[in-house]
Amino acid sequence: MSVSKGLPTVPAYALPTEAEIPASRAQWTLQRDRAALLVHDMQRYFMRPYAPGAEPLPGLIANIARLIATARTAGVPVFYTAQHGDQDRRDRGCRPTCGDRA
What we know:
Strands 1-2 form a two-stranded antiparallel ribbon. It has a domain at 52-85. With 102 residues, it is an alpha+beta fold. The two termini are 21 Å apart. 21% of the residues lie in helices and 10% in strands.
């Protein structure tokens, strides 16, 4: 497995189709006035392990752009997270991370 600037490379793969996504089990209805969209870690650092132009990147980016546009049209706030790509493991919020040893 090769590594791209600290993260292992990810082989190309297709995003699941709508038919392949399980039905929601949530027992609640989305309320626009109580909703927010969180775009989490869509940074170059985290996208670098994927081959440019190969799935899932084009589909993923298109889907996120569509979600953002829909949220803005509906008046739903959009929030973004970001972290330094060279952040020390001890400073990361989620642990253990993939590949960490317990």
